[in-house]
């Protein structure tokens, strides 16, 4: 059975599955993370939004390696919006992790080829 996006994020945040009071808030924040990923060129070109527990990760990305990093990204982005840490150093650390993940995802989706490297050297 495929993993529900909302259920996964609820579990990572520490919210019980049957506790539905924050589902709308979490859905909005998850969709915000997906909007950012779409702007980075990650996932479906037309964008992606969840509406509830029925949406699964493979609807956004089927590749397991990419999906793993996407899950981490969506979790951290959602956590920062839903339950930001009170510690400034932890907040900074999470934001730095997001930047690194954005870079890694960009490289996964738009790798630099050997021809690109040759072109850079010739034009420099």
Task: Tell me about this structure.
It is a single chain. With 124 residues, the protein is mainly α. It contains five helices and no strands. It has helices at 5-13, 23-39, 64-82, 88-109, 114-123. Helix 1 (5-13) packs across helix 3 (64-82), helix 2 (23-39) crosses helix 3 and helix 3 (64-82) runs antiparallel to helix 4 (88-109). The longest helix is centred in the C-terminal third of the chain and has 22 residues, at 88-109. The protein is globular and about 55 Å long. The termini are far apart. The model has no long low-confidence stretch (mean pLDDT 92).
Structural class: mainly alpha
Shape: globular
Low-confidence stretches: none
Report strand %.
Answer: under 5%
- The radius of gyration over CA amounts to 17 Å
- Please report the total strand number as a whole number: 0
Give a quick account of the main beta sheet: strands, pairing sense, barrel closure: none
One letter per element, helices H and strands E, the order comes to HHHHH
Instruction: Calculate the terminal CA-CA distance, rounded to whole Å.
Output: 51 Å
Number of helices: 5
Sum up the structure in keywords.
124 residues
Outline of this structure?
About 60% of the residues lie in helices and about 0% in strands.
Strand and helix map with partners:
Blueprint: H1 5-13, H2 23-39, H3 64-82, H4 88-109, H5 114-123
Helix pairs in contact: 1-3, 2-3, 3-4
């Amino acid at each position: 059975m495929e993993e529900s996006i909302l259920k996964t994020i609820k579990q990572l945040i520490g919210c019980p599955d049957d506790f539905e009071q924050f589902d709308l808030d979490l859905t909005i924040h998850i969709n915000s993370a997906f909007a950012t990923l779409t702007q980075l060129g990650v996932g479906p070109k037309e964008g992606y939004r969840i509406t509830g527990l029925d949406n699964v990760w493979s609807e956004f990305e089927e590749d397991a390696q990419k999906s793993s990093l996407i899950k981490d990204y969506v979790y951290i982005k959602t956590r920062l919006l839903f339950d930001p840490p009170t510690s400034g150093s932890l907040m900074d650390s999470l934001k730095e992790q997001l930047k690194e993940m954005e870079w890694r995802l960009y490289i996964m989706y738009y790798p630099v080829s050997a021809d690109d490297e040759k072109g850079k050297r010739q034009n420099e």
